[in-house]
Model the fold of this input.
Amino acid sequence: MKLPLIKYKLFRRRKNFDPIILFKAKNDLTYKEFVSILENKGAMSPGEHYFKKVKEHFEKTLKSEKDQVKPEVKEKKEKVLDEKTQVKQRRKRKVKNEKEDIHEEVSPERALSDWSY
Done:
């Protein structure tokens, strides 16, 4: 028993399907092959008109990519790696001094005697 096929628009949204990827994989893709691929994936065919529009768009982009001259990439001198190799320094954790501990252990009588009115 075959599962029912879902609409092409819904299939594209759910699976992030891009038909141009199929054309990149196989330049001479026919409509029958396109339909069979979609049926294997569980989607209905969008129609022959849609297939022709996508194929024309793919051919235009392919021609424009070939026509564009790739600019030469100038080699940049790499900066000295000293900046990257330096390790960031962390601050040391503050340690309680013994003097601070002594102040905390002052007797209550002494603490009252320090108060002046």
